[in-house]
């Protein structure tokens, strides 16, 4: 291949390679998260990466003229298929398809990658791992939603966060929906209003940004324009006044719409059940949380970090919620024609990983012991040592190029982070001995020891 035609290595924007410490931490988090989900009584489910496009729905996009603009869709014969953008829509399809075989209350967890065709940056990826737990069926909503809040707290603590490092914000979408009804905002504008409110706590938004989105349009720092909901001044003023309230009793006294009152009562019931658990002190009511996806219709939750996070350029950024979700009573009815209520939460694993890497957590990497090849004629002996180590569950490898000298082999081992090297030549094999070199020892000290072969395992364990 000519120099001009050589490929340039790189990734599309919003995608990331993960390796070394970051990948090890992610695998650790995934293991902890899954074990905790199982502890709470959830069963696993795995669905395909692709769904039929019309089954996924258009709950994500903000472009009215292109409702599937934020997903990756492809032609598959006569139908379009779409990479899943969340794990809730595939769950709804699965429940509708298999309802007769499922228990009356179906508690499932799923840990899989999802895909979003949107702007990337600041721990926002176009492919990322979600860890979801959902409860589908006729349940006491307060109990089910309290169980999910307890699960969020327990899981994040098991992952290594402390109680003062995150807060679980809860609300109920019916509260703002009642206000929207009182303001006689038409159905065609309601989703846009909800999404505007949901952006209140986003970077560079605040009340002014929400106000712009409730009115004609908002122009961001880059000059990009987002069309607003075109509400009148009175409607905008009443919504902004609502957003300034943070006391449940004040809300109860000032907003009398029956749907709003229903949402307040559901929130009070949730808080009462939460008092029975261990995470009540981490719960905060936040009535501005409505969730951006259109299928939520009751309880909403967003979990935010209490410590600063920096992007790759060292600038402090707000990465948003690391675990969010809510209640959806109509999602499955799109298939069944019968409402089967559901509620769920989703941990953004890669967003959590991005934040936790900045806490510099300790990770037991368990790097392998390296067996150096000093002389090809002793290969059989080296492989005998290798087999002994592996039988004793000790991570180990043999250097795979016997033509390299010892210095090159140790350079490889040091770059890989191996804790100890087995260095045996003619003298060791003749005397039935083993020599170990501590590769993590202090430079200048005696980091090498020779001992009888039968003591190999005991001596190795001193280094790992």
Number of separate strands: 20
Strands of the widest sheet, in order across it, are 1-5-6-15-14-11-7-10
Full CATH superfamily name of the largest domain: Bira Bifunctional Protein, Domain 2
Question: Beta-strand level of the residues, as a percent range?
Answer: 15-25%
Q: Please tell me the CATH architecture of the largest domain by its name.
A: 2-Layer Sandwich
Q: How many domains is the backbone divided into?
A: 2
Instruction: Provide the low-confidence segments as ranges.
Output: none
Main pleated-sheet profile: 8 strands, mixed
CATH class of the largest domain: Alpha Beta
Structural class: alpha+beta
Supply database-style keywords.
BirA Bifunctional Protein, domain 2; single chain; 36% helix; 8-stranded mixed β-sheet; Rossmann fold; 464 residues; alpha+beta
Element layout with pairings:
Elements: H1 20-39, E1 43-44, E2 50-52, H2 53-56, E3 73-76, E4 79-83, H3 88-98, E5 106-115, E6 127-136, H4 141-159, E7 166-172, H5 173-182, H6 187-198, H7 206-214, E8 217-219, E9 225-227, H8 233-243, H9 248-254, H10 258-274, E10 283-285, E11 299-305, E12 309-310, E13 316-317, E14 323-328, H11 333-336, E15 342-348, H12 349-356, E16 369-371, H13 379-391, E17 396-398, H14 406-416, E18 420-422, H15 426-431, E19 433-438, E20 448-452, H16 456-460
Parallel strand pairs: 1-5, 7-10, 16-17, 16-18
Antiparallel strand pairs: 2-4, 3-4, 5-6, 6-15, 7-11, 8-9, 11-14, 12-13, 14-15, 18-19, 19-20
Helix pairs in contact: 1-4, 4-10, 5-10, 6-7
């Amino acid at each position: 291949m000519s120099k001009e035609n050589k490929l340039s290595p790189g990734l599309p924007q919003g995608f990331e390679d993960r390796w070394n410490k970051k990948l090890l931490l992610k695998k650790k988090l995934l293991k902890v998260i899954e074990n905790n989900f199982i502890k709470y009584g959830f069963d696993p489910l795995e669905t395909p990466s692709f769904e039929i496009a019309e089954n996924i729905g258009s709950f994500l996009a903000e472009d009215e003229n292109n409702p599937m603009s934020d997903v990756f869709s492809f032609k598959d014969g006569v139908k379009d298929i779409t990479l899943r953008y969340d794990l809730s829509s595939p769950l709804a399809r699965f429940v509708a398809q298999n309802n007769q075989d499922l228990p009356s209350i179906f508690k499932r967890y799923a840990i899989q990658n999802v895909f979003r065709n949107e702007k990337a940056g600041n721990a926002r990826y176009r492919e990322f791992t979600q860890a979801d737990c959902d409860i589908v069926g006729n349940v006491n909503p307060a109990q089910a939603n309290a169980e999910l809040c307890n699960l969020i707290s327990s899981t994040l603590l098991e992952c290594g966060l402390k109680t003062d490092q995150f807060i679980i914000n809860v609300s109920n979408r019916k509260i703002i929906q009642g206000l929207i009804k009182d303001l006689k905002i038409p159905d065609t504008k309601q989703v846009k209003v909800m999404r505007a409110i949901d952006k209140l706590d986003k970077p560079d938004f605040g009340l002014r940004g929400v106000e712009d989105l409730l009115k004609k349009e908002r122009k961001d720092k880059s000059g990009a324009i987002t069309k607003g909901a075109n509400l009148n001044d009175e409607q905008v003023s009443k919504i902004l006044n609502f957003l300034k309230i943070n006391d449940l009793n004040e809300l109860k006294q000032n907003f009398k719409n029956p749907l709003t009152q229903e949402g307040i009562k559901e929130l009070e019931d949730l808080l009462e059940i939460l008092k029975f658990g261990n995470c009540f002190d981490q719960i905060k009511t936040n009535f501005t949380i409505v969730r951006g996806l259109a299928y939520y219709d009751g309880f909403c939750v967003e979990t935010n970090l209490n410590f600063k996070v920096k992007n790759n350029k060292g600038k402090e950024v707000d990465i948003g919620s690391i675990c969010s979700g809510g209640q959806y009573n109509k999602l499955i009815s799109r298939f069944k024609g019968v409402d089967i209520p559901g509620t769920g939460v989703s941990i953004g694993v890669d967003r959590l990983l991005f934040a936790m890497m900045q806490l510099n957590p300790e990770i037991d990497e368990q790097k392998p012991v390296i067996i150096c090849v000093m002389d090809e004629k002793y290969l059989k002996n080296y492989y005998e040592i290798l087999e002994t180590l592996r039988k004793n569950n000790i991570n180990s490898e043999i250097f795979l190029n016997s033509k390299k000298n010892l210095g090159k082999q140790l350079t490889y081992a040091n770059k890989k982070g191996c804790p100890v090297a087995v260095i045996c030549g003619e003298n060791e094999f003749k005397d039935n001995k083993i020599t170990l070199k501590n590769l993590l020892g202090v430079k200048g000290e005696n980091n090498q020891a020779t001992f009888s072969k039968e003591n190999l395992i005991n001596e190795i364990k001193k280094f790992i």
